[in-house]
Write a structure and sequence with these properties.
Layout: E1 10-18, H1 21-30, E2 39-40, E3 46-51, E4 56-61, E5 79-86, H2 90-99, E6 108-116, E7 119-130, E8 139-145, E9 163-173, H3 177-183, E10 193-195, E11 198-203, E12 206-211, H4 213-220, E13 232-241, H5 244-253, E14 259-261, E15 264-267, E16 276-280
């Protein structure tokens, strides 16, 4: 039963780095990503973005010298621990999901300054979480961009590794119905598809794959994080690239030796701050 007319679209993927943002940013630059200057949220967290055509990766942490505001975020494992879905009206969507008895938080507003030609402008957002304690090892939330022109800037979108967009998210799940029930009620394009390899959910141009531990071991081996408490762990991202040669050259320049993987190139989670990265054309 539909509960909203708003589509399910992945906006960005959050890689938690705790107080190691400097180290994580250096690593991701070596992986061939062009990162935005450091952002300082009014909620206390700090970040760098790798911005693509339709979505982005966020490296999210807190200042080593700070008071660790947003303490709820720092209990999650380092690595891919947040998925943000896009909404054009967070207040309306939150109301629709709450009316459908989905476990959602209240929405809240925050911002971070962005330097545009020497002038500080506030990139502002409205977000709310879905799932809360239902989701293990991270969060699902919805993000409304009030100033998308301050996030998707052409100056930030030319990556040496040729990445164009996030194309896939892989979640190892012991109880996939936990996620499918949370996301049930969006337009039919997001209806879960059951197949031999697990369950897939389309979120705009991104496919979210819910796979069992056995399937994950068969497919990824030791390239993804191993072992976790709770129902699920987000373990890998698929990244669409302009060309595999461009990606391979950038990775080699950064000192990485990716393994061939399903027609693409795979960087182990141990080498990419807790999330496996699959570069694919």
């Amino acid at each position: 039963m539909s509960v909203t007319a708003q589509p399910l679209v992945l906006d960005h993927a959050v890689i938690g780095v705790l107080d190691q943002l400097d180290t994580a940013a250096e690593l991701y630059r070596k992986l061939g990503f062009a990162l935005t200057p450091r952002g300082y949220h009014t909620l206390g967290s700090i970040n760098h973005l790798a911005v693509f055509a339709d979505n982005y990766i966020e490296l999210l942490g807190f200042p080593p010298e700070g008071d660790k505001k947003r303490a709820d975020l720092w209990s999650y494992p380092v690595g891919l621990n947040g998925l943000a879905f896009r909404t054009t009206d967070a207040a309306a969507l939150q109301g629709e999901l709450a009316a459908a008895n989905k476990p959602v938080t209240d929405w809240r507003d925050f911002s971070r300054p962005v330097n545009v030609d020497g002038e500080q402008k506030p990139a502002s957002f409205r977000t709310f979480q879905i799932g809360g304690d239902t989701i293990s090892n991270g969060r699902f939330f919805f993000c409304q961009h009030n100033t998308p022109e301050l996030v998707w800037r052409p100056v930030d979108q030319n990556h040496p590794n040729g990445v164009l967009n996030i194309s896939d998210v892989f979640i190892v799940s012991r109880a996939p119905q936990t996620i499918t029930e949370l996301l049930d009620g969006f337009p039919s394009a997001a209806t879960p598809q059951i197949h031999e390899g697990g369950i897939s959910i389309q979120a705009g141009i991104v496919t979210i794959h819910l796979i069992s531990e056995a399937s994950a071991l068969t497919r990824f081996g030791q390239a993804i994080p191993q072992g976790f408490a709770g129902n699920e762990r987000k373990v890998a991202l698929g990244l669409k690239v302009r060309s595999l040669k461009t990606a391979a050259d950038a990775l080699a320049l950064g000192g990485f030796s990716p393994q061939p993987f399903e027609g693409g190139l795979l960087i182990d989670a141990d080498a990419a701050n807790g999330v496996a990265l699959w570069f694919k054309e």
